[in-house]
Design goal:
Structural class: mainly beta
Shape: globular
Oligomer: single chain
Helix content: 10-25%
Strand content: 25-35%
């Protein structure tokens, strides 16, 4: 057998682009795949996601990589082996985030502590259901470690009674219900707002949105079992508390209107499954709330308590965050008491392929993306322009048609058009929902100091080159 040089992961990580060579690892072997990048059947953008790192997390997304001929092909590009003394660093026992779970290295990380990350746009619209390991992660605090055998969900009933449910009881006492729903962070596409004026918040690109098939008990069934009526007179709210807490012990919390929680058509879940498996830790294990059609901030993870109140949740994240304001409001004049908490989100869409700045070959260009609207409103059309909005074409929508008012999941769309060499394209998309709501054409009129509700036409500039 030939003798190969040894490299550290840091040395491998320096080779991330064709200009600097593209190196990857598989097991303990190191490969220079620069000459294979353009030959990759899934396109160069996919293989470059693993540049400088391990192939395994990306290969696991596509079963074809387990075929023997793929491994044989890879062996042709072997240039070395990882140094035997490569080992992960020991966790810091004093770090409150030291117990966080491992994550997919392909995620685009916006903050490590707490962990917030989105899937790369190149993979975002590849599948209707987002793989669990690529589902966007929005954490506000350290991820709690929960022992499922000792887990209890507390439901404060009417008249001071309390219902305490174990995970097994939640599964056995209530019929399992499944719903396919898209969750979106209020800050999705915030980076576009920050280019108009600075905003406070994580610099999300277009990936703070994902779709899964959720399974669990209906919140409605649990509340009725606890003794609550179908309707309550006046304004009431269902408040949620998570097991994640700040150093002072205050938990993450949020609330939704009572009418939505009890509506049979709202499909609000106490979910314990995600895409057919138990919830991953980053996504709320063992139980989370899933509120379809509503901003992701209300779908509280690691749920520990449910209570009904005449007032919204007193949590900071309900009272003093996730609210929209006029462009004229700044941090000297903002008063969070004057704005309602975000619940249903406006219509949204984005281009996932091609990526900004890409050079695309002449011939036929396929443009792909996603579109979604809050409140169960169906996306009925996506318009796409290649010249900045002067002329338009209608994209093809993909996905099953949902019942009226219950279009909880996004629509994926695509458009194939001829393009000529030597041209510059400004690709624009805008979605229209079943209420004929449409996205605004520019960011400046909807700018706000927290950078939420960024739903302007999405624009991607590319060049067509031989």
């Amino acid at each position: 057998a030939p003798s190969y040089p040894e490299y550290t992961r840091e040395e491998v990580g320096r080779h991330r682009s064709p200009e600097e060579r593209v190196w990857v690892t598989h097991g303990t072997d190191v490969f220079d795949v620069t000459d294979f990048v353009e030959l990759h059947p899934g396109g160069p953008d996919k293989i470059l996601l693993a540049a400088g790192g391990a192939l395994e997390p990306f290969w696991a997304l596509y079963a074809v990589h387990g075929e023997p001929h793929v491994l044989e092909l890879l062996q042709q590009y072997k240039v070395g082996e990882l140094s035997p003394d490569e080992a992960p660093a020991a966790p810091d026992a004093q770090d409150p985030f030291a117990g966080d779970p491992p994550r997919h290295p392909g995620l685009r990380v916006n903050s490590q502590k707490p962990f917030n990350a989105e899937p790369p746009a190149e993979l975002l619209a590849e599948r209707f259901l987002t793989p669990n390991e690529l589902f966007f992660t929005r954490n506000h605090l350290p991820v709690p470690a929960v022992e499922p055998s000792s887990y209890r969900l507390r439901v404060d009933g009417p008249g001071g009674g309390t219902l305490s449910l174990s995970l097994a009881e939640l599964r056995s006492r209530f019929p399992k219900h499944e719903v396919t729903a898209t969750l979106q962070c209020a800050g999705n596409r915030r980076s576009e707002m920050s280019r108009v004026r600075p905003v406070k918040g994580l610099p999300w690109d277009i990936g703070a949105i994902s779709t899964a098939r959720w399974g669990g008990a209906r919140l409605r069934d649990v509340l009725l079992h606890a003794g609550f009526p179908e309707e309550l007179q006046g304004e009431w709210h269902v408040c949620f508390e998570g097991l994640d807490a700040d150093p002072g012990g205050a938990p993450y919390g949020a609330s939704i209107p009572y009418g939505r929680a009890l509506s049979p058509a709202a499909d609000v879940l106490l979910a314990y499954e995600m895409n057919g498996t138990e919830l991953p830790r980053d996504h709320g294990f063992p139980v989370r709330v899933v509120v379809p059609g509503v901003v992701g901030a209300r779908s509280v993870k690691w749920l520990r308590r449910v209570a009904v109140s005449p007032d919204e949740s007193p949590s900071h994240w309900q009272q003093n965050d996730f609210k929209g304001f006029s462009p004229c409001v700044d941090w000297d004049t903002v008063d969070y008491r004057t704005a309602p908490a975000i619940q249903e989100l406006p219509v949204q869409s984005a281009v996932t392929q091609p990526r900004p700045g890409a050079a695309v070959p002449p011939g036929e260009l396929t443009v792909k993306g996603y579109a979604w609207s809050g409140g169960g409103r169906e996306v009925v059309r996506v318009d796409v322009s290649l010249d900045g909005g002067r002329t338009w074409k209608v994209a093809r929508l993909m996905g099953d048609k949902a019942p009226p008012g219950r279009a909880w999941a996004w629509a994926l769309w695509e458009l194939t058009v001829p393009v000529e060499a030597g041209t510059e394209l400004e690709i624009v998309c805008k979605a229209v929902d079943s209420s004929y709501n449409v996205q605004p054409d520019s960011v400046a009129p909807i700018w706000n100091l927290r950078g939420v509700l960024s739903t302007a036409w999405h624009r991607v500039r590319v060049s067509v080159q031989d």
